[in-house]
Design a protein that fits this description.
Four copies of one chain form a homotetramer.
Chain A lengths: L1 E5 L3 E5 L1 H8 L1 H4 L21 H18 L2 H4 L1 H13 L9 H7 L2 H8 L3 H9 L4 H8 L6 H4 L5 H14 L7 H6 L1 E3 L3 E4 L3 H19 L2 H19 L5 H5 L3 H11 L2 H10 L5 E6 L3 H4 L3 H14 L7 E5 L11 E4 L2 E4 H4 L1 H9 L6 E5 L4 H9 L9
Parallel strand pairs in A: 4-7
Antiparallel strand pairs in A: 1-2, 3-4, 5-9, 6-9, 7-8
Helix pairs in contact in A: 3-5, 3-11, 5-9, 6-14, 11-13, 14-17, 16-17, 19-22
Chain lengths: 384, 384, 384, 384
């Protein structure tokens, strides 16, 4: 077993299969894709990558297999699960979630990579059950819940890791979370450790206002999305080409060959971000607006303020759906859903509203014009 | 300035007044009063004391004074506040909150100590404004909120400290909490750091099921309370004498001179705790029962099970009231109460119900009899 | 397996045998013996106990057994070693190393306890091989090196633990130390992790000036030793009785029944420590003085200064011998002794001299007289 | 004051001058220069950058100014020192120390940047004393020792930071180090905290074998150096152009336009590193070989093994000189040099030999040929 030092889990123990997969160029590329997109513009320590996160998720899956003694009950799965965990983020394009909005869900891309390239070769050489890996990564196996559900090894790893690198204090009781896991037609948790689950859910909840939805990060990422869009329309690259790039390659291509896209990219890398010109707090109708409508409003504000495409950005907070219903707890009185036992878990979704914001961003010099133009733009869309 | 090493705050900086107060025997006694009563029977690391906690609260008050530049606006208060913080727990009897149920609130005792003994002498020699200290400790000064309110330096210190010594993971962003404090006719907080406040409140919320209300701690502490009561009725000591004892002195007195009290004390120190014979989840009427009624039920169960006084303990979870309304936030649109901005803070009180329990404890050998006797005892008291 | 939370190792996993041994009153007594004697007078967080340390050493032994897969090669030993680790400190009297100077080595007492009392009962009921435990604890088995040698699980635990509770920063790479252990006719280490060994040795080296030999701790502990001696000569207790006491019981007995011993005990608990009146840096002849000679000099200084027995304390730093020769390293070129590979390890013993001190302590009011009386007292003993 | 979150120092407090300097494109470029070159190929968490390190060094300098109350004694210097600290690494080329071997010392480049570009503009607009900054950064001011000497804020920051991101345990007592600093015609330290200094020095010593001189890092960095050299000879770029690149730009330029350089760059980014084919332990004559001789031997081995330029790399450990003599300690008996008080500090230089290695690296398939070719190559150079 190869040992890799990890600031979060102390050590990652790679078996031979994992080691060869990690050596594949497709996996090495993840070294050059930041875990948190452009968050390092706000938290300068947030330079961690999908590479180390993937190793961490593998390690946690390995520990879950060990804790649940899965090799006794299902040897095939015990072998496949950590490999599925290792590969789960392989389909991420440059800047992860930002390019995803143009490329489409990264989960789809992974599935293709399982049967092609060096990854496909290694899996086949080592006799790994690719169908099983595919089922796990497609939410078609009971074990999928370990890798991707409301509480999974992916989330546990990224919450711990994001906190470590941003310097934000957070609280995830890793040992206890694994200790209360039961694998029995899916992932279940012993009630005795319910506070560890609540702690994880709240930690995640609080990472949104502090990190994931920080207004400057939102602004930078929306600017980058615009740069990517211009980059495609300016023929710097196709969407297909972008898919295989890493973060810096994308930026350098835009610098070299782009026009408006190069300008935005340069702003980003010199951290000349737009500022908040206008903001609104939560309104259910605003929160329900889809991307198309928002872009339409953005265009109107841009034109009302006498500016050009790309000069104004409208952005609303998007909290990911988290299917907390799905969490099953094992109590002395039988199986229950988490929400029956934990009021707190039920409240979190509505508490997100406190941190919901609609922002209109623009360059400082256009602030006044954009604020004025934004003023009435949202009234018509608000809840009567 | 004297520097004392602290695992929580790195260093405590004592000025000359604080140093002499710490040297007073009344303060040195706090070295021998555990911060968390008998919690070390469950978390073996929880041997920390009121002494180090008091130093920590002093240090935090000192940092708040520094951060708010209080010496510019109110030099008197800037001088008095850390001293008030230092002394706030001086009135704790042995095992803190357990003896408090017989002695009465520790806050009253502190006030007497300000004007007598070595503490009184030092305060007077050093020209400290004792009236102001008294007002701060009696909630009669706007600055009282810094030492004792829904979010205060006392709570911040004990949450950080209890987590460090129990090994429970928790999340308190000390730097940010102090950074958003504003002192302006009481303690207020800038909205920008609201997530740090929510994080503190949730951390505290989760410490109840994990630590403060752990069933074995509850059991041990109720057993100790019975030992104290027997100790008094067996004339081992008076309540007044107990007030001045420290943890171990109390136990040794009971061992030496007590009868039933000695027996219970010995059980505790050999960790032969009672076990849970019966339990109920939250019911509003049960939760509203007062001590007198509970003791009455306890007596009935004891007798129904054919046992002797002290053999059965009935205990219900008691969450402290926390007046979250009182928290004032400073937003761009003016002052608001926390609850207007933070849904989460509003939910926590009701979420406590999930962890509420009624326990009936007894020795393992009496378990069956007590379970049977408990069966119907609570039905009549439940919400129709 | 019972899980106990530990701030150092996260969790302690007790098997049934360990759980019953921990429940024995002899073991529970360790809850009331501080790990670091009176160090909490200097580092207020240092209230940790032999109880939690013993659990920690057990846990580390358990992990070493797991890592070396000892159950495959020697099942008997794999079962016995963690139990031996658990019990290794059972013979400590009140304030550990201080009473040891009157009682004699604690290692001897443990051996008796293996075959008597509740510990003896449990070991016999559970079919533990007591002879093997005894051999391990008497340095008569190759596995003794895991529990007690230059690098052992005892040291690893106490260095990590003492740092956690004092707040001193230190560096012990637990995961790596265990990872490079090989059990093969004693404990050996892989050369690849030599830096982890050097780091441990230096951490230990630096704990002496920072914590273990801090002048105020030395002073307090020497005062306590005098209190114990007076307590015995004043018939407060016999040495045998003292052996079974815990820290606070000892102090309360002295308070209640002692004369000079009560006075010193009270000084200690009100932290009215003697101060340094005189000090010398390292001199080989001074460092070689034995206790009898030092006491003789102490008596002379006391009398020269016109004071009474107990008013003056002479103390010299005593670094424990550490047999670093014994450490065996496994390299690609075969087995080597640590000192052949690590110059640093060879230097540490002589580097201790930098921190060596001879102190003469007395009450502040006698400082001048004692300083004067000390002046010439050591010249005659110094290296020509 | 702007606050930036930092996982190492909790918060960085930027004044207005610092904020504008940080916003300069020259400074933003440091976001894209890794602190530890290619170390992330071995420690996947080591993605931290010169940007955050520079902020950290600024923050520490600010704290030293605060601690030494420098604004009272020398207001000019108190203002300039943190700015000098902030800018000290501005001259680093891509992959820091690797490109430095072709570009020349980064310290020279910084000086030019002080009087040109956006940095020059801001310094002049804000009325910063550029001459003083220049003197500090050229070791011509007594305060230079705070930024660059045997113990300085640069080292303190990078040791803490490198440990945090690699996950290596290390021990630097930041609070105490700053607390014992005295500024009085240069930087001095109070003897009372000597153990904190020794701890820092040992931490640094141990980082060399664990991180900075790890064989795989050494190999990767030597491969990259070859790629840069080929890149220049293949006219991909000039040395001047390289100076202004960041890490990824360099690599992408090599990929796009290089020949052999592109091949090596691709190997590096797919982590197909050479392996150790041959190694030697310390020999004083080998350690004294200069780069020219080593390259000559490298060429001979390459040719003996029938390989091409670039296929074989010879590398010897180079520990940086550390002028520990220079450290001045303030004792009760007057000023002393560290080496008079601390034997350990004197030993460290010679202890480095234990970790000294000469490596010959090559592709796995050439291993045998290269090992054979290396065999006799070094005998002639060894100490008779």
């Amino acid at each position: 077993m190869k040992r890799i030092r990890c600031p979060i889990h102390n050590h990652i123990l790679l078996d031979e299969r994992a080691e060869e997969l990690v050596d594949a160029p497709e996996f090495q590329r993840l070294r050059r894709v930041h875990q948190l997109g452009m968050t390092n513009l706000v938290y300068p320590g947030a330079n961690h990558t999908r590479f180390e996160h993937s190793l961490g998720v593998y390690e946690l899956a390995r520990r879950v297999v060990e804790h649940t003694e899965m090799d006794r009950t299902n040897g095939e799965l015990a072998g496949a699960l950590p490999i599925a965990a290792l590969l789960h983020d392989l389909g991420h394009g440059p800047f992860s979630h930002i390019s995803e909005r143009l490329i489409g869900p990264h989960e789809g891309l992974v599935l293709k990579m399982l049967r092609s390239g060096r990854i496909g070769e290694v899996l086949s050489e080592k006799g790994v059950d690719v169908d099983l890996i595919q089922r796990i990564l497609s939410d078609e196996d009971p074990a999928s819940e370990i890798v991707s559900s409301a509480i999974d090894v992916d989330k546990i790893d990224y919450l711990l890791r994001d906190a470590h690198y941003t310097g934000v204090s957070s609280s995830v009781d890793l040992g206890r979370l694994i200790n209360i896991m039961i694998f029995d037609e899916g992932l279940k948790f012993r009630e005795r450790g319910m506070s560890a689950i609540e702690s994880l859910l709240v930690t995640r909840f609080l990472m949104f206002p502090m990190v994931y939805l920080h207004h400057a990060t939102r602004c930078a990422e929306e600017m980058l999305l615009r740069a990517m869009e211009f980059g495609i329309s300016e023929s710097v690259m196709t969407v297909e080409q972008m898919t295989l790039m890493d973060d810096m390659e994308l930026v350098i291509r835009l610098w070299d060959d782009g026009d408006v896209s190069a300008e935005i990219a340069r702003r980003l890398f010199e951290r000349r971000l737009y500022k908040v010109a206008f903001e609104e707090r939560f309104d259910p109708a605003l929160a329900a607006l889809d991307d198309v409508v928002i872009r339409k409003i953005e265009t109107e504000i841009t034109s009302d303020a006498g500016l050009n495409a790309g000069d104004v950005i409208v952005d609303i907070s998007r909290f990911p759906e988290s299917n907390l219903d799905g969490i099953r707890m094992v109590t002395e009185e039988g199986e229950r859903r988490l929400e029956e036992l934990s009021s707190l878990s039920g409240y979190l979704a509505s508490a997100e509203r406190d941190y919901w914001r609609l922002y209109v961003f623009t360059d400082r010099q256009n602030s006044e014009a954009v604020e004025k133009a934004s003023g009435g733009s949202f009234e018509a869309f608000k809840t009567g």
